[in-house]
Amino acid sequence: MSKKVDYSQGIYDAKVLGKPKILVLGLQHMFAMFGATVLVPLLTGLSVSTTLLCAGLGTLLFHLLTKGKVPAFLGSSFAFLGGFAIVAPKLMDANGEQTIANTEMLPYACAGVVFSGLLYLLVSFLISTFGVKKIMRFFPPVVTGPIIIAIGLILAPSAISNCQSNWLIAIVALGVVVACNIWGRGMVKILPILLGVAASYIVAVVTNNVDFTAIAEAPWIGFPVHKDSMGLFAIDGSPLFISALFTIVPIAIATMMEHIGDIAAISATTGKNYIHNPGLHRTLLGDGLATTMAGLLGGPANTTYGENTGVLALTKIYDPLVIRIAAVFAILLSFCPKFEAAINTIPAAIIGGISFVLYGMISAIGVRNVVENKVDFTNSRNLIIAAVILVSALGFNSVGGITIAAGGVSINLSGLAIAAILGILLNAILPGNDYEFHGDEEEDKNTSESVSNQAS
């Protein structure tokens, strides 16, 4: 006879639910991250199977390094899409659509991901050595917020370009995502991207816009990391490699701030302070090494997923074991080439419809970053920093960045790289830098409020 379980206070040991329920809960978390995670390889040209493998392995590595305490899932990061679009833009097919993976440049983009993860490791070490407040003074919201805003705006033209291939299908995808976000309840609200892709895919099938040939030809079982399909990382000291580093690595500055926000959100949801225990340095280490591993395997950068935090809040099942089961499901799915072939049949118009709102949301997250941190734009110092970042990111991106000749090697700096460098330098040089990172104090407050709300 099964015991009656009290969900009101949250479940921290899922074993009391029994193995069948634990497996179902793990599967639910896998579906929560699925739509967003597979969208990244579709937008960049990376392998879907490799991406799922990296998400699963990265999550397990993160749990290992954080002592299995943090119920976080690591999926594909959207923040790096801007870097991929600059370093390895998709190529035009016979119909004039950007659908062909840039296999020549993708390895350099993956190398950028590798070194982005190493930047996480450096910051993790500095935090453990000098303390979080001293380090975070160099990455205040007045710098990271505008960078995130610029990433979304840089990507916006590609969304319109994909939508133009079939506006009907694109509008269906966009409409379903918006409807699920605004009026959805329960899992419908948590899975808007997956549902948007499913609904618009049905429309695409009905209107004869899907070719199933590749699905029939693909085998059921295969190895998810294969060099011929997309290429692994390339580290060769060439100008292309160096330019890729300067374009992609600075994005990690913004994603580290996102990481801190995600860990704070998970802490508030579960009522446990993960910034204190196991510590922000450990969560950054886990995220960073997972990202480096993904780049080495030819996958996109990893990041903690808000979708899965939403599932935690919905189910009140806070046991990290459930997340690890979801990671295993993702790994198993990565060994099915037929599944990857099915994902690759998704028309460009669907990608356009989904990314239409997605890219805007990236910019909106940047706006939320500065609003929630109460950045004072009546202060000329803050206004100048934000202005320089936005104009540098968008302006230099429109002209292909700038090229610097050093030691016989030409290095191309993208708009994002220039914006990040100038933003950090201006923040360090201009007087009036009064930003203080209050993660510990805020987290204590959030944790106590969460516990209080659960008790009431």
Could you explain the architecture of this structure?
- Pfam families: Xan_ur_permease.
- This is Uracil permease.
- It is a multi-pass membrane protein.
- Its main location: membrane.
- InterPro entries: NCS2, Xan_ur_permease.
- By secondary structure, the chain is mainly alpha-helical.
- It has one domain.
- The protein has 21 helices and six strands.
- A two-stranded antiparallel ribbon has the order 1-4. The chain has a two-stranded antiparallel sheet with strand order 2-3. The chain has a two-stranded antiparallel ribbon with strand order 5-6.
- Helix 1 packs across helix 2.
- The longest helix is centred in the first third of the chain and has 26 residues.
- It is globular and about 60 Å long.
- The relative contact order is 0.21.
- The C terminus is likely disordered.
